[in-house]
Amino acid sequence: MSTDPYLALIQGFVEQFREASLVIDELGRIVTHNRALAELLGQPADSKFDSTLRLGSVNLQQLLIRAAIDAGEHDAAGRPSSRALDFHADLVVRERPVRARIVTANLADPQRQRQLRLVRLQVVSAGDPEAPPGGYAPDSVLESSDPDTRTALDLARRAAGAGSPLLILGESGTGKTALARELHRIGPRRHARLEELHGATIADAGLVSELFGHVQGAFPGADAERIGRLEYAHGGTLLLDEVAAMSPRLQAALLRVLDSGRFERAGENRIRRADFHLIATTSADLSAGSRSGPAFRTDLYHRLAGITIRLPPLRERLADLASCLDRWSSHHGIKPDSAVRERLVQHRWPGNFRELGHVLEWLRLQADASGHIASHALAGVLPSTDAPAATPDAGAATEGLSFSAKERKEREMLEAALTAHDGNRTLAARSLGIDRTTLWRKLHRLRLIPEDSRG
Predict the structure, then answer these.
(1) Single pTM value for the model
(2) Average confidence (pLDDT) over 4-32
(3) 355 to 119, 322, 346: CA distances (angstroms)
(4) Four-point Cα dihedral 38, 43, 47, 50, nearest 10
(5) Which contiguous run of DSSP H or E holds residue 122?
(6) Residue-range domains of the chain with CATH
(7) Which residues of 189-220 are buried (b: 16+ CB within 10 A; e: fewer)?
(8) Kind plus residue range of the DSSP H or E element containing 158
């Protein structure tokens, strides 16, 4: 155990997780890890790993970079941002294929003034509901104390019951995928399969086989028949997760199926019927002209958006936040002081419920024998303040100005990024996947910098 008190605390925090977990710094160096990681990799319990480049046969750094790029959360150098990631990956561990869910969260090291990242690898087996590992969320994703959220959830429940296509919008961590899974679990197609398809995980090269399947001998290397993802979803639910990440070719292939309701396996002439309830999720704005990258097909958008709901971010659901804190405190017998609760309510929660889960896990380990948590316990996971990064003069400068809905949304995003990084523009730019110069131009254009500082 380290003689550094903070590092010793981090080591104890990581060791209590059942799944393989590690903490890395901004350069991908491993600060500490638990014994479960060594067990997953088939190494002795006392093994020490130094770099995410070499975890047995797993290049975790490459996986994190790819996931960050797929999610649009990377900086100009292609490094993962400090925002939370949640993705799946196919690994080869001890010469065996393993499907894993990889979840990340921020940890601050105030003593060394560096940003750390907690990474947790959860092996997913068939039929695993894939609940957030160790995280915390409302007792039911279909319940809320917030009126706008209740309205959205009620509409989603009715859409699932009627079999109407459903598009779920919301920031990362708001529970879009969890809601889709719950709608399938309680819906009329619950006895059939829920097939999940992430928009960024299907390469164009293998698209036809992955989506539609193939017969033996359909192409060189097709030594056995394969059932496609659409066929697996027959009679059940097809969840298209983060559809904005779909390649143009995948969008076109999916649109043909949704238009005709039919598809064929590669190499055969038999027409198969597509019968599934369609649910799509995205954290991006798919409306025309709203995206800086390649446009999402308008015709596919209208196919997906039969019924559209938006899950509000946690910062807009303060009643749900208070309810989560009350249930968590009661369940663990923990008594956070008033300063802790006030700080949690004031935080902007850019990672939403996913971030809340990790923060509460951290706080649980900071409680003393009587269950009391003091405010200094938050230093490791939250910035010192969530006060607005812009000065009052900057806010005053916007009086009388009119912003479009798109500009208002962009202002909110920029303000949230600055708030999450305590006003540090370099870190805020990195979290948004842009360089510092681009951030500066956006702040000027949207009047988030006072006139006398524009030089």
Answers:
(1) 0.61
(2) 84
(3) 13, 15, 14
(4) -70
(5) strand 114-123
(6) 5-123 (3.30.450.20), 147-310 (3.40.50.300), 314-380 (1.10.8), 392-453 (1.10.10)
(7) beebbbbbbbbbbbeeeebbbbbbbbbeebee
(8) helix 147-162
